[in-house]
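Re-running endo-1,4-beta-xylanase to confirm reproducibility after the cluster update. Everything else is unchanged from the original entry.
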Amino acid sequence: MKIAVHTAVCVAFMAMLCTANEPAWDLAEAEKRIRQHRMSDAVVEITLPDGIQAPAGVTVTIDQTGHEFHFGGFLGPVRVYHDRPELQTFLKQFSQVFNYATLPFYWSQHERQPGTWMLNEHTEKAMRFAREQGMTTKGHPMMWHNTLPAFVEKEPRVDQIDRYVMDHVRMLASEYSQVDQWDLYNETPGIRLKPAENGARRWVESLGGPGPCTQKIVSAVRQVQPGGYFLLNHFRHDDPQYHDQIRYCLDHGVDFSAIGIQTHMHKKSDVITPEQLWDMLQRFAQYKKPIHLTEVSIVSCEPLSDWRQVQQQEAAVERARRNHGPDPAIPSTPDGERRQAESLREFYTIAFSHPNVEAIVWWSLSDEKAWRGMPSGLLDTQLNPKPAYETLDQLVNHQWRTSESCDVDEQGRVSFRGFRGDYRVTLAKDGVKLEGTFRLTEENADAISVSLH
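Result of re-run:
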């Protein structure tokens, strides 16, 4: 008996030791963190229409109808479909897996002459759709040197550029207050890659660099939207100047809301393993700000070898589309789609498990007219779901969504543990289906009262 007990204790100890030594980026460990950080215990107190508590023993169903977490996508491709019958299919597939929409507010597309701002039709349509679906929306971006109108880019006077930019960001914050969140100055450290004569570069340098520039923009938009949600965003997570920008803002009390990190994986060196993703998130977690993975691209072809190949591919695609010639897009392959789906599962599982991550935004829903002509969509060119889309749907709508049947106790309550978000509770009484709704958050310390009707 003593030997048996000793053996059992040793086995249990070794199991605990193995679990403790599992790497943080292991998917099994990530699933444990998901249940720790993304779920909450709930006690729901149910009242019938007559004000009487629900009778003990009756069974109710608890169904999650929406996530607290932002599973997002980019609605810029609405421009491809906005006057075509396929638009409804595109939007239906979008809303099936996303509750968070990034909207294209590229300055040069909406204002070609000073004072002639007009939001284009496809952006209006995308914004209206997102609001009708109850999605959280983000404007992308308030400012970006790659989408400046010519009158700003070529303006010789820095003080006039300053007026243009500050009037523009204040206008967006004021006129589009229905947009929930905003990217501030997109990819600010990347300004060093622009020619010295570029208007935005001259303006940023006149202010002292990305940090002071961010400080000035945040100060302006906070005057318009004191409670607004404003993000930094950059294309290189390992860019020292991005970390300098973040530290400057923290050291100088710049009131930004979250850190945005882009993860486009079009070339081999940009492909992020689960271990690399976890390490990257841990590095940004030191800043104690929510993290948004703002632009995720995983291709379903072989990633290109280097940056030169990416540039050549992008240039060829832009040239062909500008001249209405044959599109030199790289086709998706069965093996590539299998790898894309598996990489998506790993990426989302690790990211969703990190407590600092607040949003994941997939960039290209469809392969049609995809950025750089590379198949990073979740749908093919005919809007049919690829394996990656089915994987995301399974994660978001099944694996990480709560549905329970519970018996009411003597106090008219039910208890369960579920993913945070919106819920519907249903009870059948005398052949009539009664329903009520509630929201489960991390802060739900007390019983949640729900009146059925």
